[in-house]
Design a protein that fits this description.
Helix 4 packs antiparallel against helix 6. This protein has a three-stranded antiparallel beta sheet, with no helix packed on it. It has a domain of 126 residues: hpI Integrase, Chain A. 20% of the residues are buried. A hairpin with an 8-residue loop joins strand 2 and strand 3. It is mainly alpha-helical. The chain is built from seven helices and three strands. The termini are far apart.
């Protein structure tokens, strides 16, 4: 019996029913089996629906409509909050991208908005829908509380922060009664 025959017998003993020939994996890497077991456990835990960990991490269009309506009826800055969520949802802007949005990025005559992307994404120009154009024009024409070129301003006179946007989304989600905590990535 040769070395090749011994290797085939050893493989058959380790993997009964496997086809004869060269094994795809020649041997275990250091720690590979433990790592594989941990990743399988993680995937299995994600697939199990638990009450404290919902599988769906996005909003349906009906939930987004409820969220927008709740933001519009906010007692403080309802128009700004509505515009913020509408633009974020329609143009898939991150919270930090909303904070950097300036009035000079909006071309009201051409009905376009320049979306300046962060984190390595490609910046580009998007068309504005009529309702977006109207709400942005209304927001632009409001008496300014502060001097600045940013679209979404805070009460303190500076551009809205990422934390401020998270707060607006969370507050609108609670007011809409969606039954779970909402964050900007869900838009």
């Amino acid at each position: 019996m040769g070395v090749r025959d011994l290797a085939l017998l050893a493989r058959e003993a380790m993997c009964p029913g496997a086809a004869p020939g060269r094994a795809k994996r020649r041997g275990p890497r250091h720690g590979a089996d433990e790592s594989l077991a941990r990743s399988r456990e993680k995937r299995a835990s994600r697939g199990v629906a638990r009450a404290d960990h919902p599988l769906r991490d996005y909003l349906t269009s009906a939930e987004v409509e409820r969220l927008l309506a709740a933001a519009r009826t906010s007692p403080r800055h309802g128009l700004r909050n509505y515009a913020m969520l509408l633009i974020a949802y329609r143009h898939a802007l991150r919270a930090s991208e909303l904070t950097h949005l300036k009035l000079s990025d909006i071309d009201f005559a051409a009905r376009e908005i320049y979306c300046r992307r962060l984190k390595g994404s490609v910046s580009n120009v998007h068309p504005l829908a009529q309702d977006e154009l109207e709400v942005l024009a209304e927001l632009r024409d409001c008496p300014p509380d502060s001097v600045g070129d940013h679209v979404f301003m805070s009460e303190r006179g500076g551009p809205t922060t990422r934390y401020g946007i998270w707060h607006v989304v969370r507050e609108a989600g609670a007011r809409a009664g969606l039954g779970r905590e909402i964050h900007p990535h869900m838009l």
